[in-house]
Specification:
The chain has 296 residues and is α+β, with helices and mostly antiparallel strands. The protein is built from eleven helices and eleven strands. The chain folds into three domains: 7-179, Jelly Rolls; 194-237; 242-295, Orthogonal Bundle (Arc Repressor Mutant, subunit A), CATH 1.10.10. A hairpin with a 2-residue loop joins strand 7 (66-72) and strand 8.
Length: 296
Amino acid sequence: MKTTQILQANHFKSESRSQIIPESPLISSQSMNLEQVQFDYYNFGDYETPKHNHIHHVITIAFENVKTERILDGVLQTENQVFSSVGIIPANIEHWCMWKNTPKFALISIHPDFLANIAYEFVNPDKVELIPTFAHQSDYFISGIAEAIGHEVANGIDSCQLHLESLFNQLSVYLLEKYATSKPQIQEYNGLAPLKLKQVLELISNCFTEEITTLELANFLNMSQYHFCREFKKSVGVTPNYYIMQQRVEMAKRILKQQKKPIAEVAIECGFSNPNHLGRVFKKHTGTTPSKYRNG
């Protein structure tokens, strides 16, 4: 008797993803060099996927009403999804889905290693498993995070990778708290130890104009990303991302007042991807634009 082989999907590779979803996403973070996490936004309809499993976890988020049929781990259910309905498809779980009309939806892919890295201080990372969850219920925290990620990804080169990392970290911790088989016991701390704080601030001071990630900062202190970000904020009062942007803005302010370099050159020198990126962050921090600040 001939058996049908189940496809193994990897959303991080376009050729593998297209075997499951032939349409290209309207918005995708695939080209943004984010490791082990990805955001894809779709708007197409009348489709049935082949049976498959993923090498990574997949979070589905509906952005409008849609009726779907779904198989998760051998169980078939009908989902009457509404705005913010969320489904959880763990890695290596058999999955199939069919829908009509032309729904707007997002898929967030998270590699198990990324989730394990977030979890290792709280639970045994070898036992981090997500619960298969049909998209019957809205989860406004996840949909809110997805919208924020989508907004950053849509900005493309103007987006801030540190902010994206922070959003994916928040999502991962929430998944561990709400959708994991083992619930983490998250301890409260009082900030970074003085020596660790001094070390990381010196590191940031030496490289804030370069592309630096929270994972690199956390690894420097031998901490998880989540623990590092929480304790950094308790010590400094702002997130690592915000602090680094502050340093870049302060450098830009000095150059704008002391030199006559073009704003495009100032942007690159201070670590921004382009003048638009500088302008957006500069106005957020100062309430004015680089040009007005220079002429003020």
